## 1
Amino acid sequence: MARKVKQTGRTRLSSKHQVTIPVRVLREAGLHTGDALAVEATAAGEIRLVRLEDPLAPYAGALTGAYGPGYLERLRSEWE
């Protein structure tokens, strides 16, 4: 019986139009599980994936210390 040899960096398009991207390629691109991606057709037979940036990410943690101790608990108690 002939043994299949898996070639690194290659994949196939499934009947459901899905593709598995090799981990090595994802690591080189700096992509991670959960990243939102834009998909663009750049030429015949060529597709480009681009990570979408979270527009709020640069502001995460910007208000650290803006609210005093217990503020969130007091605010939550108003909802009860």
## 2
Amino acid sequence: MANTINRVVQREQYLILGGLLILSALAWALLIWQSSMMNNQAMGLTMGMSAFLFIAIWIVMMVAMMFPTVAPMILAFTKIYASKRQQGRAFVPSWVFISAYLLVWSLCGVIAYLLAVLSEHLAAQSMWLMDNRVHLSGGVLLVAGLYQLSPLKDICLGKCRTPLQFILTSWHDGYVGAFRMGLEHGAYCLGCCWLLFVILFPLGLMNLAVMALVTALIFAEKALPWGWQISKLAGVALILYGALVLFLPTAFPG
């Protein structure tokens, strides 16, 4: 009986993992298409997009970049509830957790859009901001690097790297509990990665090479055994590059 339950649970985990990877691949394909369509359009922090389109693209980015990194947490959640269902106990599907996780990042996208619109408005009114755009970009890179070395980054990364610890300390039963867990894990994930997404704005929100590099970094620091060291090295690299841009603006692309 136990072996049968284990096989069923394992099959459900494979299905969930396959679904997450397929969605991520489709999202990347859509981003590549969207990026090619925007090559000749005027650029800016909002890239000339409406609020609806910006948020839609932001959500697609989250699916493409974050689903592979959050997969271990979702699989752990799936395993627990799949086992409960096989034992005839209350069951909550994984989409409840995933939807709450995406809600956190979607709200982040709304805030990002509002700040981008405000920044574009201020830049249009101030020649100083336009003249010092590259220096401000270097400052953003520098701050992102410093955050990589901060205690808050370590706390959030620790929660993201250890799904079992998160489950043991943050488990809540039922649909409401699963939704709450998704919100909590999304908040830790946001706390871990938000400045890595902020640097996409000066470097190009639809810059596929930068997006791929950030995705690889987030996956490495969350999933690989030496992820802590990778996170710190990335922080040092961002600090050095940010400082270089501040003193040598020609080092900044575009």
## 3
Amino acid sequence: MSGQPRFFRKNLIDLDLDNASWDITDSVATGLGENFTRFMLNRDNNSGWGTIGSSDAGNTTLIMTCDDILSFNTLILVGVNFKDYSLEWWDDIAATWNDFSTVIDVTNNTRSTIFHQFDQVQSSKVRLIITATITGDVDKTIRQFIVTQTIGSGQFKGNPILKKPTINLSKKAVPTISGKAKILERVGAYSVDLVLSSWPEDDDLTLLEELHFFQPSGFLFWPSAGDETQFRYKRIGYRNEDIFLCGVASEWQPEWEKGIYVNGMGMTVKLIEVV
């Protein structure tokens, strides 16, 4: 059951929160990319952070420090080229680095988007140590660094229909003097309808209530749930790297199937990307 959509809180170190700082070390790199760390937090896979002049001979360490103590049980790394790496959390009371309940010490990774889940921790720091890249001796890179918490059960037990998934580029045809047109477009905004028919899963309905009523700043919606192999083709919107900050744009309409209270519920939940 790994393929059902997943839901998380908004990145706890999202760029608009401005609550994280970074300390980077690398024994051989000529540049540590300090000016680009904020690009890991802007929800955009077209930008990111990277070293300059690093190689596998020089371990690269990134320490994220937050202004506050965070409670989280998930780390998602998007657009990475890490082959071997480890992740640890800082115990602010004992002042020690610790492994997560599920130890994260990865070797021979081949995926560009990875997520790790573990027992919830409370910490102000996360340490990422990169010891090798998928293509040897190139600079280390990452597009998004997401520190988050699952919402409710965190994942649907059933498979809703993803209806009318749309990446709206706001395309506009502008006439030119020649009579031809120039197409202008903006960064795409995502939307989708989750269609649930006679839904029997109580945990899923509780999760939907949480999304509707208790996530005012939005939530992360992950259509692939980290398993893009379930799709015949890896298309935009269904790739592992496609994680959207969404809100619920529809009203709460919990209708019992055929009005029979012991049946499941049916509803359509419209998600739309938010800022």
